DNA sequence: TTGTAAGCGTTATCAT
DNA sequence: ATGATAACGCTTACAA
């Protein structure tokens, strides 16, 4: 039994033929073992598996990719205005892929470009990707989903609400979460609450805005148009927009920003004007990114379970491949929850 | 001339055979064109190239990978305590790869695990990676570099100083940059300056610490041992360590933190104690990550040209492949520079 | 249940 | 300078 292949050296690459010879079977039989073919004699399988284990043989992914017409790569396609969330997306998907034969290929794209669609198409077809995870705002593009279907590329979309079937979608309930957060503000006694919404055309922005308006309506609070501003999910835009909100008279006593970056901008704007937070202005953000605990005061925010969502997306994608039934049922809906920190207080009297 | 292949549809995949037939040459000749073989008749090449352009033919990467024994994938291996910098690393490498046939595969690892080395070995050999970019602190591991060499995997290391030859290394001059920053603090009048250094065993931490001590020595300022603390490059550790520095009597009038996360922790600690920044305490960080402009006051810091360094690393890696001589000479040394913002002022009188 | 032969799309060898 | 033919390592018919 040749077995110098244990644990070291430049590895004189074993092939399926070597294993077949050692096991005294045909390469096809080895192939069947690798691919978990059901029609195989128990003993034969056991014998081959033993050899594989002893030798540490690993099938060549390139050869499999060529023969199968598909690679063992998962693509992560994104064009996210909020750099902070990119990391947690990656973390989640990587967690799902950990220990499998899949690797993660990342691909930032420019959704503004007229070529996005072709870019992504080339990406998936050229690399013959096993599947892709698509995150907001790109995940809101139905044409993209259709295109991936046409190309025979599996996909899972991440979103702030559900707009595709369970096999293709992992979502959070942003609307409810924001409604809760807004009710919390109202319960603290706030009545003039400003909203710095996300970019027009973003589903997440719309969901969060809807939740906000819903809670206000429920409480019978009218929302003057001047108290709402559409921005770009960036620190700078939060800062800029907060300026105009603070110019209003009477001034809002609280501001809900549709993400933490903008909330940090609001806090900064308040500081620039010498407005004390939370005494004179309460702030609530969304995402629970690290920045919330690095600024002063730490920001009350809505925790968005990004990592868990991405992991679910990854599992959903490869679930079919691994055949592990346990993983096929990766959950499709996740709940965000309010995290109370230091940026909210009852409004100043008067 | 068949040319329905222009711009749409599920793409009935062209192969090298199709191109060969259309051009009236053998597939080997087409292959030569693809691989820029020098021994080719100008006209033959032109003819084949024309067909390729017309049809939009793209060679199948999987087949090439199998035949060549190497993939067109670049790996990014990291185990970075500072999440913030991961993004800029990725951005830089992605920029270098943009428009090429290479894709980026990311691979976080746990350098604490006894299996790291084998993990990475499996990663590069299984995927037959074209090459990998290794970032600190993993890039300081010489055994890792040796192993990659053995496996025939190209690599480029990123570091805070140069410790490998120019082909394998892209570095910054952290020591000089920190010395400059420290001199700036001294020029402002500070004499009791605390240092919150990076983790023991990190080359970047050592370089930055050396720069700090160098500047102090040059100015004839003795550095009490109590003014130096080793920490983990995290916000929490910066916060914790700052507490003990602020307990000293007399208190330091300035603190240099070896990265921005820790500097943010210092700022937070000061706020907790009601110590005004920069009036009563000056702070300087390192990296110039986004957080520096989101806290109040914005942090003076040393800009670390991460994106440019990573791009250079990527170019260096694929330079040999693209054959573009212009890119082979990607620079190997980058300078960090001081960015003055609001967290430094002369020490309070007395 | 297992094996044989023929690909998958490219590159390398060795002629010519 | 170009082409026929055999790899590359695996999978899918199709037999046996």
UniProtKB/TrEMBL annotation, chains A, B:
Highest taxon of the lineage: Bacteria
Entries under InterPro entries matching the protein: HTH_LacI (IPR000843), LacI/GalR-like_sensor (IPR046335), Lambda_DNA-bd_dom_sf (IPR010982), Peripla_BP_I (IPR028082)
UniProt entry keywords in alphabetical sequence: DNA-binding, Transcription, Transcription regulation
Ranges for domain HTH lacI-type: 14-68
SMART domains recorded: HTH_LACI (SM00354)
Pfam families hit by this protein: LacI, Peripla_BP_3
Signal peptide: none
Entry-linked PANTHER family: LACI-RELATED TRANSCRIPTIONAL REPRESSOR (PTHR30146), LACTOSE OPERON REPRESSOR (PTHR30146:SF153)
Name listed for the protein in its UniProt record: LacI family transcriptional regulator
Lineage, top ranks: Bacteria, Pseudomonadati, Pseudomonadota, Alphaproteobacteria, Sphingomonadales
